[in-house]
What does this fold into?
Amino acid sequence: MPEITQSMHQLAEPLWQESFNHPFIKELAAGNLPTDTFRYYLKQDRYYLQNFGDLHKQIADHISSPKIKEFLYAGAEGLHDDEADVRKTFFQELAITPAEIEATPIAPNAYSYVSHMYHELHEGSPARAAAALLPCYWLYNEIGKKLIKNGSPVKIYQQFIDTYDSDGFTDATNEMIKIVDELGAAANSDEQKGMKTAFVRSSWFELHFWGMAYEHQQWA
Ligand SMILES: Cc1ncc(C[n+]2csc(CCO)c2C)c(N)n1
It folds into this structure.
């Protein structure tokens, strides 16, 4: 039997290709992504990261394997990489003030993505929720590895790319892949199907996160 993450990767491949080719990513690499669009992305991603951390904690609470618990609690504390620190620097460099953050509500696609992850945990299972978290690590790591080859002429975009290509981040991604494989191996076929669906849906939300930022999506 191939590992469950191999078939997840295959199922999500068309969505991932669309992410690799999304104008947000192309322009980030070329250096002509409008600063306003990157600012929009960062303000929305802040909601995502906050919920992502909380979700790690909640999933860890429901999982019995001490090894998996430890990884997820560390993820909740942001120990895997300096993503949170890098973001603080970005906010300063782009003069995103607390007042501006306060005045920015979560946008439709960020809201749906986060809701999907809580749904997988509370109406599904810890294994489905872990599968829903995986594209976040894995897709960003693949994007980092692709973009690092040419980099970006814009310093802040280069810093963004560096975060996701770092050794620490690659290690965390591989660890998360292993965790999902372990949970998949212990699951029955219905549960495995649910895990794959959760993974593909998160891949869809990842793709549309770029679109949301590119179009500065609003509720009204
Ligand atoms: C929409 C969205 N998806 C994925 C990431 C990347 N990311 C968020 S948390 C985390 C794990 C460890 O920090 C990673 C890789 C992002 N920033 N925003």
The pocket of VIB is lined by residues 45, 48-49, 52, 75, 80-81, 83, 136-137, 140, 206, 209 (CB under 6 Å).
